[in-house]
Write a structure and sequence with these properties.
about 170 residues; mainly alpha; 5 helices; extended
Length: about 170
């Protein structure tokens, strides 16, 4: 009986491995499926009007997104950096999280028509059309989780997650 279960499990594993590799073979390496771009992005950045973004147009769109994220980061710092040191302490991050959570709940209460606890693309479009803005970044930056770089690009001197030679513990 145990042998039959083992062989069945091995057969199932082999079949699933084969089907996964067959799916990978359908898509050439290095190519990602193209996402459909929002019409407002195409309207703003598709300068040649071909309905897609070439490398230069994509770079312009990314630069614009980075600039907006930097503006939002500065706005979060201006609002929540109470000690003025240019970064958010744990208490300041918690305050920012609570404010964003309250903002999210208010948006859900106002625009979540199907009451599923999240905004569908249509509900989000309605909110944007009504003039609502959505934050492009989390207030804690990216350094609040283990192994993820902080706003300065590293976890800080001696911090966990910083590679050796770049402010990590091994220096």
């Amino acid at each position: 009986m145990k042998t039959r279960i083992l062989y069945t499990a091995l057969a199932a594993f082999a079949v699933s491995s084969f089907s996964a590799s067959a799916q990978d073979a359908e898509r050439p390496r290095g190519e990602r499926p193209q996402r459909e771009l929002p019409p407002e992005v195409l309207k703003k950045f598709d300068t040649d009007g071909d309905g897609k973004l070439d490398a230069d147009e994509r770079k312009a769109a990314m630069d614009d997104r980075r600039a907006k994220m930097e503006e939002q980061r500065k706005a979060v710092l201006a609002k929540f950096d109470k000690d003025g040191d240019g970064k958010l302490s744990e208490d300041e991050r918690n305050a920012a999280r609570e404010a964003m959570k309250a903002r999210h709940e208010a948006l859900l209460a106002k625009y979540d028509a199907d009451k599923d606890g999240k905004l569908s693309p249509e509900e989000r479009k309605a909110a944007v059309a009504a003039g609502e803005e959505f934050p492009a970044m989390r207030p804690q930056g990216r350094g609040d989780r283990e192994g993820r770089p902080g706003p300065e690009g590293r976890r800080g001197p001696g911090g966990k997650g910083a590679p050796a030679g770049k402010g990590g513990a091994e220096e």
